UniProtKB/TrEMBL annotation, chain A:
Interacts with incompletely assembled mitochondrial NADH:ubiquinone oxidoreductase complex (complex I). It comes from the Eukaryota. Residues 253-263 have a biased composition (Polar residues). Residues 238-263 are annotated as: Disordered. Belongs to the ATP synthase subunit s family. This is Distal membrane-arm assembly complex protein 2. Required for the assembly of the mitochondrial NADH:ubiquinone oxidoreductase complex (complex I). Involved in the assembly of the distal region of complex I.
TrEMBL record, chain B:
Pfam families: DAO. Required for the assembly of the mitochondrial membrane respiratory chain NADH dehydrogenase (Complex I). Involved in mid-late stages of complex I assembly. InterPro entries: FAD-dep_OxRdtase, FAD/NAD-bd_sf. It is found in: Mitochondrion inner membrane. GO terms for biological process: mitochondrial respiratory chain complex I assembly. It is a single-pass membrane protein. One of its GO terms (cellular component) is mitochondrial inner membrane. Its cofactor is FAD. GO terms for molecular function: oxidoreductase activity. Residues 74-464 form the FAD dependent oxidoreductase domain. This is FAD-dependent oxidoreductase domain-containing protein 1. Keywords: Electron transport, FAD, Flavoprotein, Membrane, Mitochondrion, Mitochondrion inner membrane, Oxidoreductase, Respiratory chain, Transmembrane, Transmembrane helix, Transport.
């Protein structure tokens, strides 16, 4: 009888401790340090939101710094040298008209200053692939109206507004490489109509194009003398059994302007 | 009731525990501490309730209708279109401390079915003749260029406006070629990138245009095109509501003002009002809330004239200032979507002919959007948004087919109608304070250019309210007093 009384008492006490623990968890402070820290942060919600906003501002600081206007250099040394200096500082490479060797920075970003010796030489070929250039940085390059080739392969900051500013090279640009630029859409490609002398255009690997085959057809119609590579005709078509093979397999054959659309 | 029950329960438990576990000293002490913890938390709850009952908090013992605006606000913006939200955004950007300004945006229609913003064609251009218009449009293009810096939010997708950089193409006849040349010089001076084309150059670039009757053409090279106005409106709303602006769906039905008299130079005495309360009526209800406010902004678009009439502007004697009505009224414009499989492709700009007809590409499937401004005498009826298809057959199609021969065979897929907030005085925006109302700012009357000028107009009005003067673009030419002095500033159009 004593044993049964004791066991009943034990059971009631364990129930009591359970209820105590339950009530404590309902009432005041949570137990772990992390939860208490989160609760404290929640009291300062807008301050935390601002701090997280600063971190995203810091992340874009590098892009802004790379795309500053070199106005002092341009005033002191002239347009061509300022453009050359800008291209090398943003880790691109270029070649002057009439010369055969390219000016490139090395892997650590250092470059030689030999371009200072030819202030009147225009830049004819620019390779800006993989750089952080955006529509603001193009301010440094707009005076180079003898530019013939421009490569923007894999530039993450090149978007439609950048392509909209390329009209300044409308009378001279012959080759343009826009492949793997993740921000370019068909609205920007519509601005390529101002590049009247374009003969080679690469639009492969643009993830934001919804129907790349259709876009390629429209761009080929828009620029009749231009050879467009990338964005195969088959891409964007739904896979069905009754699909006929496309007429034009090879990407390198040029598309003449007959006004017909090969559907 | 719940607290009494809790006390009772804990008291019973305490007694039960004491009866059975007398030997377990620690547990009983734990039970006492537990009683005091409970009491402490109940006292805390009571203190919080007492604090909310004190004046200064937003708690109200009566049940309120959902969706009522707050009883007090600093700035009430009448109109939830792109101009109204843009003003709210810039006010929150420019306020001196966090939550320094309580801004309420009042919009009549929660579904935006008749709002001019969402029914717009979405074009933006810098080819104007007035310097202020060009500057406004350039600043707006800069805003749209960096839209994710302005309206981007954490953990949300970046804003996608679907901007097409195709530019505007204006065609001028012999009579208006000189106006186009002067406009070109002004645009170049201010910084817009525009090119003039002769008919042969035009034919070379756009072989599908019939250059018959065209003496000169002007093509926008940069910062011109069209975009999706609904994405801009939603991006603005999302960002501005996260900054703490209240949105209220209701209609402004009246104002409660205090009046004082003022004397003009020529001895005229008239009433100057100061708005104390804005009456906001709930949708489908007679219930209204008077919102006490310091400043009211009239960004109501096509209905701005009605709002101005509620304050007595235009209802006074004919010869005085209060007899001049506010010259903004709704004008209906039709937009037709046509499908033409042989039409021009990706290079189609926003073409505007000297006959008044316009046309732009829509999407990649051979669809185009077209329309025309009707003559003054043939303005359509504004009581509804029904589309007049006869207008397309009689007026738009012949002119369109003349200019673009490929459009002789086309099919109208759909059409819609929208209101312009048409400024009958000079068809340019009206921004600023009215002499008869000391605290109402007007930002309306853009006559079809509201969408493209909205980001920079929002900034200008916020500068007027917060700083007292224009800081970035000087828009004193668009002030309200030009209407009272009868000095119009007209755009020199080529149509």
């Amino acid at each position: 009888m004593a044993a049964s009384l004791l066991s009943q008492a034990m059971r009631r006490c364990s129930a009591h401790t359970c209820t105590v623990a339950f009530r404590r968890s309902l009432s005041s402070a949570p137990s772990s340090v992390f939860n208490r820290f989160l609760l404290k942060l929640n009291h300062h919600f807008y301050d935390v939101k601002n701090i997280v906003g600063w971190s995203s501002w810091l992340r874009t600081r590098l892009v802004r710094r790379k795309n500053k206007l070199f106005s002092h250099t341009r005033q002191r040394f002239g347009d061509n040298i300022a453009a050359a200096y800008y291209i090398l500082s943003v880790r691109g490479s270029f070649r002057f008209a009439g010369q055969s060797e390219w000016f490139r920075p090395d892997s650590r970003g250092r470059f030689s200053y030999e371009f200072l010796s030819t202030p009147d030489a225009h830049i004819e070929h620019m390779d800006l692939s993989g750089t952080l250039i955006n529509h603001d940085g193009l301010d440094n390059l707009v005076r180079q109206n003898k530019l013939q080739t421009l490569s923007l392969r894999g530039c993450p900051e090149v978007d439609d507004w950048f392509i909209g500013r390329l009209h300044v090279f409308g009378e001279s640009l012959v080759e343009l490489d826009l492949s793997h630029c993740s921000c370019v859409t068909v609205g920007g490609l519509a601005a390529l109509k101002n590049l009247r002398k374009l003969q080679l255009l690469d639009i492969s690997g643009l993830p934001l194009l919804q129907s790349p085959g259709l876009v390629r057809i429209l761009v080929e119609e828009m620029l009749p003398h231009c050879r467009v590579t990338g964005a195969d005709y088959e891409r964007g078509l739904t896979q069905t059994d009754s699909l006929e093979p496309p007429e034009n397999h090879s990407e390198t054959s040029s598309h003449t302007n007959t006004g017909l659309r090969p559907i | 009731m719940a607290t009494w029950r809790k006390l009772l329960v804990s008291a019973c438990a305490f007694r039960a525990r004491n009866a059975t576990c007398r030997t377990f000293k620690t547990s009983s002490r734990g039970a006492e501490k537990d009683i005091f913890n409970d009491l402490e938390s109940q006292f805390r709850a009571f203190r919080e309730k007492a604090a909310t009952a004190m004046p200064g908090s937003d708690w109200n013992p009566f049940e309120l209708t959902a969706g009522l605006p707050p009883e007090r606000a600093d700035i009430v913006i009448v109109g939830g279109g792109v101009v109204g939200w843009s003003i709210a955004y810039w006010l929150k950007r420019k306020e001196k401390a966090r939550d320094a300004l309580r801004v309420v945006v009042v919009e009549k229609d929660p579904s935006y079915t008749q709002a001019s913003t969402v029914l717009s064609c979405g074009g933006i251009r810098q080819q104007f003749s007035l310097k202020e218009n060009i500057l406004l449009s350039l600043a707006s293009a800069d805003f749209l260029k960096n839209i994710n810096d302005h309206l981007g939010m954490l953990n949300e997708d970046p804003v996608d406006l679907q901007f097409n950089h195709s530019g505007y193409l204006f065609l001028a006849s012999d009579k208006s070629a000189h106006i186009m040349e002067e406009n070109y010089r002004t645009q170049r001076e201010v910084g817009a990138k525009v090119a003039l084309l002769s008919p042969s150059q035009l034919k070379e670039r756009f072989p599908w245009i019939n250059t018959d009757g065209v003496a000169l053409a002007s093509l926008g090279l940069e910062n011109e095109g069209w975009f999706d106005p609904w994405s801009l409106l939603n991006a603005l709303r999302r960002k501005v509501m996260s900054m703490g602006v209240y949105q209220c769906f209701g209609e402004v039905t009246g104002f409660r003002c205090s009046a004082s008299t003022a004397e003009a130079k020529d001895g005229d005495i008239f009433n100057v009002k100061r708005i104390k309360y804005v009456n906001v009526q709930m949708p489908n209800s007679l219930e209204y809330q008077p919102v006490e406010c310091a400043v009211v902004v009239n960004a109501a678009g096509a209905n701005s004239g009605k709002i101005a009439e509620m304050l007595g502007i235009g209802l006074g004697p004919q010869q005085s200032i209060s007899g001049i009505p506010f010259p903004v009224e709704p004008r209906k414009r039709f937009v037709y979507v046509v499908h033409c499989p042989d039409g021009p492709g990706l290079e189609t700009p926003f073409l505007i002919d000297y006959s008044g007809v316009y046309c732009r590409r829509e999407g990649l499937g051979g669809n185009y959007i077209t329309g025309m401004s009707p003559e003054e005498a043939e303005e359509p009826d504004i009581s509804n948004l029904d589309v007049d298809h006869e207008f397309f057959q009689e007026k738009v199609w012949p002119r369109l087919a003349h200019r673009l021969p490929a459009f002789e065979s086309l099919k109208v897929s759909s059409a819609w109608a929208g209101f312009y907030d048409y400024n009958t005085f000079d068809q340019n925006g009206i921004i600023g304070l009215h002499p008869l109302v000391t605290n109402m700012y007007f930002a309306t009357g853009f006559s079809g250019h509201g969408l493209q000028q909205s980001p920079s107009v929002g900034r200008a009005v916020a500068e007027l309210i917060v700083d007292g003067c224009y800081k970035t673009i000087d828009l004193s030419a668009f002030d309200v007093k030009r209407i009272l002095l009868q000095e119009p500033i007209l755009e020199r159009n080529i149509v």
